Fold:
Amino acid sequence: MREPKYQRVVLKLSGEALAGDEGFGINPLVVKQVVAEVKEVHDLGVEIAIVVGGGNIWRGEVGASMGMERAQADYMGMLATVMNALALQDTLENIGVPTRVQTSIEMRQIAEPYIRRRAERHLEKGRVVIFAGGTGNPYFSTDTTSALRAAEVNADVILMAKNNVDGVYSADPKKDTKAVKYEQLTHLDVISKGLQVMDATASSLSMDNNIPLVVFNLNESGNIKRVVLGEEIGTTVHN
Structure:
């Protein structure tokens, strides 16, 4: 078995990825498939933190269309990420992977509050840590949470697991047949070209802290392990 290229990773999962073809809610079969792949990587001795979105349950745009205040809509989205985190935790622990959920908004009855040094200790002890609740602040996405937490826990890489997208393209490949897939990019390229990889705040944070990013297709079985082992799949974004 090859040695893993990365020893500590932050895996970014969108909420939509947990919904499957339904596009809404939590699909148990999809969650089990994702968790099985996380276990494969965990079994290699890799330290894993997960940041999960909440778009399968609530999106801020829906609140905005209702005339809801943006901050209120964002807080609802943060609560949605906690629901997804608890589903991931339960499924991981059912297959023997020790897991902790840490939330940026305190809810002590169901999860630990986010404490950086405690999170690092969990990782060192081989526990998967799931960061829920976004940054705890409105106006920031879970992409930004990924970059922030990766910097805080000194992760080697951010793994951006996309739903049916196998990398970064010059345009939407579903709409533009001439769209070109990038194998390598810099964080500055992503920002200057306006590529829809992660939002500008998250890209700037990753660039400033020299954290590489690998964008790949979550729906292809075994891809998380392939990335961790250093296979050239998807798109790598670095400085």
Observations:
- The helical segments are 28-42, 60-65, 70-94, 116-124, 142-152, 187-192, 200-208, 223-228.
- The chain has one domain: 8-238.
